[in-house]
Task: inverse folding
């Protein structure tokens, strides 16, 4: 089944403890991206990747890191999480980098930082 | 800069009634437009998209949307809703300008609450 897989689905952590949210897609998509969803704000892009080893900042990149060493994987790293990073995170991928294909989304990771 | 406005944060409607979810966008260049649906505890699923051509586009689950360039709108409609349509709906835009990054800009979402 074609899908984007995120892990974990739920995570509670403490301030300052480094964590990684994994994202993997099995569709050979070029484009991958991370978004966070907050009530009343919709989805905001954190980082994106147009291809392997090519990543760039989205609208809210502060406090996050990403890497794209392989086409299928795009992990999101929080080096020192803070409570304002409590949110619902989505990984997405797209066959096209031209904006016409739309995204396939993962099921989300609900992160709570205390 | 692009933006997407979904004026209605919540739309209550009775089962089998018609519904329209409103979406307006602003962009200085041509755009692609999308509607996504998010069911509770799930990721977003693509409902439909407008790229070019006919301004009326049909999607899954009986939904359709109409692109209106003069009003910069892309409203979503369904003639008769079901309880199972209860979900949050997001409008999104992708610009075609120079240096485009395939980024989707999302609205803040509209919760469709279908009541029996």
Result:
């Amino acid at each position: 089944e074609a899908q984007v897989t995120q892990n974990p689905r739920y995570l509670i952590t403490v301030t300052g403890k480094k964590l990684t949210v994994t994202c993997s897609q099995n569709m050979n998509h070029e484009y991958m991206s991370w978004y966070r969803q907050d009530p009343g704000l919709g989805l905001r892009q954190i980082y994106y990747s147009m291809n392997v080893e090519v990543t760039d900042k989205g609208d809210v990149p502060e406090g996050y890191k990403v890497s794209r060493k392989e086409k299928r994987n795009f992990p999101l790293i929080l080096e020192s999480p803070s409570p304002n990073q409590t949110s619902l995170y989505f990984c997405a991928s797209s066959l096209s980098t031209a904006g016409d294909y739309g995204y396939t989304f993962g099921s989300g990771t609900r992160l709570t930082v205390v | 800069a692009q933006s997407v406005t979904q004026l209605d944060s919540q739309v209550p409607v009775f089962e089998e009634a018609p519904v329209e979810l409103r979406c307006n966008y602003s962009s200085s260049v041509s755009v692609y437009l999308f509607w996504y649906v998010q069911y509770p505890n799930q990721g977003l699923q693509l409902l439909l998209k407008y790229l070019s051509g006919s301004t009326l586009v049909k999607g899954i689950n009986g939904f359709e949307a109409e692109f209106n360039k003069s009003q910069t709108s892309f409203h979503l409609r369904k003639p008769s809703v079901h309880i199972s349509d209860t979900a949050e709906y997001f409008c999104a835009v992708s610009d075609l300008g120079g240096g485009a990054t395939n980024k989707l800009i999302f609205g803040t979402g509209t919760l469709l609450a279908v009541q029996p």
Notes: The radius of gyration of chain B is 14 Å. Residues 1 and 60 of chain B are 30 Å apart (CA to CA).
